[in-house]
Design a protein that fits this description.
Elements (H helix, E strand, L loop, with lengths): L2 H31 L4 H10 L17 H12 L3 H20 L2 H14 L3 E4 L15 E5 L2 E12 L6 E8 L4 E8 L5 E3 L13 E12 L3 E2 L5 H37 L1 E2 L2 E2 L4 H30 L4 H27 L10 H9 L8 H14 L1
Parallel strand pairs: 1-4
Antiparallel strand pairs: 2-3, 3-7, 4-5, 5-8, 6-7, 9-10
Helix pairs in contact: 1-2, 1-3, 3-4, 3-6, 4-6, 6-7, 6-8, 6-9, 7-8, 8-9, 8-10
Length: 376
């Protein structure tokens, strides 16, 4: 095991301990009360998980995409909502990591590590087509500022984040640019908290920009760089979404096995029944396949290979489908109890569903994969 592998294993072990000691006791309550877990934020901040991929010179853990995935997976085994907190934080910081200048990195990265600031991405809009290259949110240059107008939808941690990474059209509505928008910006408004079937402790809102004045020093890169920054961010974050899905699936499998060993029917544990054993074997096989694919994708993304876009998209698509199937099967193993909120599997099943939708539904991901293959 080389130094990097040892470092990753230390990070994974730290995440596992935090999941078991801090997150697990709160997982059910977070879901039932549908409250954002600020206490979990504090714990993650102390562990360095909110600054996982940030460079050490800014107080970060200097992690890579593999380390990012490891932490997301371990936390997801016990709580999808808490894992999503780390996932969205990583996705939010990626654009600054990819395209921020030294002044931006010094300011925002230091604040993230010192104050546990929450960062999130605001990219999606309400449109009939899922097309990043044709955004309706506009940023008009006015002297040394940009005036931002428009609306973003489905923003994870909207209204509670401290920093928003926003993409909008600039220069005659022909180019996409990225901006750092702080939470106290005049003209920044938030929609209602959306009611969702899963990830109950996460806050999902619209972001509304009503003549928001953004200083030009908050522009990421140059005007017109936004599309590349956004696409690079999505490519690097897809394996982490896959890791979230794998973690949920693994947690569901482990609980189903425990239950099957303890549940007695006809004088013996149901784990001895062939039908249950086949289901468990199939679930474990799919999870291992998904995990291998996710970490293969994470390594490809780290190396920025030509295969990065394709393999990261495949990993997200496959792992999220596996999570949905495995959690559904886990509920089935518990029978009626699996449908009850007294047990965590119905929560895991609800949380798993959104992994098939993040960054565009899996059907859209399949179109991307097909396009990449046919072009090859």
């Amino acid at each position: 095991m080389n130094n990097k592998e040892k470092e990753r294993e230390m990070i994974r072990q730290a995440a596992k301990r935090t999941a078991e000691k801090v997150v697990l006791p709160r997982a059910s309550e977070i879901d039932l009360k549908e409250e954002f877990p600020w206490d979990i934020v504090d714990s993650f901040g102390k562990q360095g998980f909110l600054s996982l991929i940030l460079p050490e010179e800014y107080g970060g853990m200097n992690g890579d995409i593999v380390s990012f995935c490891l932490v997301v997976e371990e936390i997801a085994k016990v709580s999808g909502t808490s894992s999503l907190l780390i996932l969205s934080q990583g996705i939010g910081t990626l654009p600054i990591w990819l395209a921020g200048n030294e002044k931006q990195k010094e300011k925002y990265f230091n604040e993230i590590t010192e104050k546990n600031l929450i960062v999130t991405l605001a990219l999606a809009e309400y449109d009939k087509k899922y097309n990043i290259s044709s955004l309706k949110t506009k940023a008009l240059k006015e002297g040394g500022n940009y005036r931002l107008n428009g609306k973003k939808g489905f923003v994870t941690n909207g209204s509670i984040a401290h920093i928003y990474i926003v993409f909008a059209t600039t220069e005659g509505n022909e180019k996409i640019s990225g901006f750092i928008v702080e939470d106290k910006t005049l003209g920044l408004q938030f929609g209602k908290k959306e009611e969702t079937i899963g990830m109950k402790g996460s806050v999902i809102t619209d972001l509304i920009f009503d003549n928001c004045l953004i200083p030009e020093e908050n522009l990421l890169g140059k005007e017109g760089d936004g599309l590349k920054i956004a696409l690079d961010t999505l490519t690097k974050s897809k394996p982490a979404i896959g890791a979230l899905a794998v973690g949920i699936a693994q947690g569901a499998l482990e609980f189903a096995i425990k239950y099957a060993n303890e549940r007695i029917q006809f004088g013996k544990p149901i784990a001895s029944f062939q039908a249950i054993r086949f289901m468990i074997a199939d679930m474990a096989t799919q999870i291992e396949a998904a995990r291998t694919l996710v970490y293969n994708a994470a390594n490809e993304v780290n190396k920025n290979t030509d295969e990065s876009v394709k393999i990261s998209t495949i990993s997200k698509c496959f792992a999220s489908d596996v999570a949905m199937k495995v959690t559904t099967d886990a509920v089935q193993i518990l029978g009626g109890y699996g449908y009850m909120k007294d047990y965590p599997l119905e929560r895991m099943m609800r949380d798993a569903k959104v992994t098939q939708i993040y960054e565009g539904p899996n059907q859209f991901q399949q179109l991307m994969i097909a396009d990449l293959l046919i072009k090859d």
